[in-house]
Write a structure and sequence with these properties.
Low-confidence stretches: none
Number of helices: 10
Distance between the termini: 58 Å
Largest sheet: 7 strands, mixed
Strand content: 15-25%
Number of strands: 17
Strand order of the largest sheet: 6-5-7-8-17-16-14
Order of helices and strands: HHEHEHEEHEHEEHEHEEEEEEEEEHH
Helix content: 25-40%
Mean pLDDT: 87
Structural class: alpha/beta
């Protein structure tokens, strides 16, 4: 008996020693596993790439009270970013005890981060990887490039709030350090030389010959252009000059059903070519009501399709109602069809870049959150403005913001929650009452 007790005590002693040893090892050599969807608790590869490209230290000052949970969360966030190889110094300031320091930094809410890098400073109101990455993306850029947004012919507004406007896309560009300048060609003899990009967002009327001449002068001088089109392509002369001919009708795509969309009038571009704009995309770009292009020979321009519809698509020339079938006699071509084209040529100042998309709705407030439209739009602007360092840094967004149910699934949920469950509870109550009366 004594020998058995001795063995039991020895076993428990060794077990406790092993547990203690494992605790010491875990403290000195921590090991983490991210089991969240899409690895949200580890730095995004694009964020890690941006941090590795920084050529100096980063200082983050957190204006947070001495609350252990809040400060620990900020510390864990910064520690995850340090693992990418960046030198990040973290300091805390209690805005309650040091209100003057918080006021001088422009801090108005607890938990605000002030990111300093390269002689510049940015505030991040909510501690997050996306906020810090956006701040560093702005600070790593030298200056704040101007983007000229042409107006005067019913173009989509990059500052509008309507579902069809491009207001959220404009805010996204401003968050990345761009400055938007609405400009009507009729009011200016020429476009500003210091503009990094000109955006022509689906004009509803044709420009005058004078306005078109000013836009073509910008192109002749090597300026970049982002041209969003829809419906009738305007100006048609510009498309012909670039070697682009729009196909008739609207692209319909059977692959839209796989994206839980209830209309075939949304083109799905899921297979991306090897191009700097699309290299970091990890999902489909969705284009509502898009038109397709036919590429023709154009002197001096090299055209590269960026977006294609699926092989189960075609350009429907009729109404998008009822059962749709492709009619080859009406000029309807089987997919994949080019939906967006990148054009380059050699200019005196270097490579000139243009992008023409057969849709403006993909950047609208109603569709910007679909697929990877946000990431594609931001990467496209970075490429057009020559921001090579930022091409692989897409905005972080949750993939489960929407709950897409089919009509059958929604009807089943309604039947279970509003009919079956109340009926079961009512039946159980009646049965209990009957049993008590019998007893």
């Amino acid at each position: 008996m004594k020998l058995q007790r001795l063995r039991a005590l020895l076993f428990h002693a060794l077990l406790l020693a092993l547990v203690g040893l494992l605790g010491v090892i875990a403290t000195r050599h921590p090991w983490e596993v991210d089991l969240s969807r899409d690895g949200r608790n580890t730095p995004h590869p694009a964020t890690a790439k941006l941090l590795q490209q920084l050529d100096g230290p980063v200082t983050i000052t957190a204006y947070a009270p001495e609350h252990p949970v809040l400060r620990a969360g900020i510390g864990d966030l910064v520690e995850r970013l340090r693992r990418s190889g960046a030198t990040i110094e973290l300091g805390f300031v209690d805005p309650v005890r040091e209100p003057e320091a918080a006021r001088a930094a422009g801090v108005r809410r607890s938990g605000t981060l002030v990111v300093d890098y390269g002689g510049g400073s940015e505030r991040v109101d909510t501690p997050s990887e996306a906020g810090i990455a956006d701040a560093l993306a702005r600070l790593s850029r030298r200056g704040n490039p101007w983007i000229v947004v042409l107006t005067g012919h019913g173009e989509r507004a990059l500052t509008g709030t309507a579902p069809g406007d491009l207001g959220q896309f404009g805010q996204l560009l401003e968050q990345r350090g761009y400055r938007l300048l609405p400009l009507a060609l009729v009011d200016t003899p020429q476009l500003p030389d210091n503009a990094a990009l000109v955006i022509l967002a689906a004009p509803q009327t044709d420009p005058t010959p004078t306005e078109l001449e000013r836009l073509e002068r910008w192109l002749d001088e090597g300026g970049p252009l982002l041209w969003l089109t829809e419906g009738e392509v305007r100006p048609a002369l510009l498309a012909a000059r670039l070697g682009l001919q729009p196909l008739p009708g609207t692209v319909v795509d059977a692959a839209a059903a796989e994206q839980n969309l209830d209309t075939p009038g949304v083109a799905v571009s899921a297979r991306h070519p090897a191009h700097p704009v699309t290299q970091a995309l990890d999902g489909p770009v969705l284009l509502p009501g898009a038109l397709a292009w036919q590429l023709r020979e154009s002197s001096g321009w090299q055209a590269t399709p960026l977006l294609h519809s699926s092989p189960r698509s075609w350009n429907e020339t009729g109404e998008l109602t009822g059962a749709l079938r492709r009619t080859a006699e009406a000029g309807e071509r089987r997919g994949p069809l080019p939906l967006g084209v990148a054009l380059t040529r050699t200019a005196p100042a270097g490579e000139q870049r243009l992008a023409v998309l057969g849709d403006a709705d993909l950047f609208s407030t109603a569709a910007l959150g679909l697929g990877v439209n946000r990431s594609f739009g931001l990467a496209l602007v970075h490429w057009l403005t020559g921001e090579r360092r930022l091409l692989g840094v897409p905005p972080r967004q949750a993939r489960d913001l929407r709950l897409d149910w089919s009509a059958k699934a929604a009807a089943l949920a309604v039947a279970l929650l509003l009919l079956a469950l109340p009926a079961v509870l009512l039946g159980a109550g009646l049965w209990v009452r009957w049993r008590r009366r019998r007893g």
